[in-house]
Amino acid sequence: MDELEIDAVAEVELDDPVLVEGLPGVGHVGSLAVEHLLEELEADSTLVRRVYSQEFPPQVSVEDGVADLTCAEIHAVTVPDGRDLLLLTGDHQAQTNDGHYVLTDAFLDIAEEFGASEVYALGGVPTGELIEEYAVVGAVSDESLLEELEEVGVEFREDEPAGGIVGVSGLLLGLGGRRGFDGACLMGETSGYLVDPKSARAVLEVLEETLGFDLEYESLDERADEMEEVIGKIQEMEQQQQQQQMDVPTDDDLRYIG
Amino acid sequence: MDELEIDAVAEVELDDPVLVEGLPGVGHVGSLAVEHLLEELEADSTLVRRVYSQEFPPQVSVEDGVADLTCAEIHAVTVPDGRDLLLLTGDHQAQTNDGHYVLTDAFLDIAEEFGASEVYALGGVPTGELIEEYAVVGAVSDESLLEELEEVGVEFREDEPAGGIVGVSGLLLGLGGRRGFDGACLMGETSGYLVDPKSARAVLEVLEETLGFDLEYESLDERADEMEEVIGKIQEMEQQQQQQQMDVPTDDDLRYIG
Amino acid sequence: MDELEIDAVAEVELDDPVLVEGLPGVGHVGSLAVEHLLEELEADSTLVRRVYSQEFPPQVSVEDGVADLTCAEIHAVTVPDGRDLLLLTGDHQAQTNDGHYVLTDAFLDIAEEFGASEVYALGGVPTGELIEEYAVVGAVSDESLLEELEEVGVEFREDEPAGGIVGVSGLLLGLGGRRGFDGACLMGETSGYLVDPKSARAVLEVLEETLGFDLEYESLDERADEMEEVIGKIQEMEQQQQQQQMDVPTDDDLRYIG
Amino acid sequence: MDELEIDAVAEVELDDPVLVEGLPGVGHVGSLAVEHLLEELEADSTLVRRVYSQEFPPQVSVEDGVADLTCAEIHAVTVPDGRDLLLLTGDHQAQTNDGHYVLTDAFLDIAEEFGASEVYALGGVPTGELIEEYAVVGAVSDESLLEELEEVGVEFREDEPAGGIVGVSGLLLGLGGRRGFDGACLMGETSGYLVDPKSARAVLEVLEETLGFDLEYESLDERADEMEEVIGKIQEMEQQQQQQQMDVPTDDDLRYIG
Question: Hey, what CATH topology would domain D4-216 get?
Answer without folding.
Answer: Rossmann fold (3.40.50)
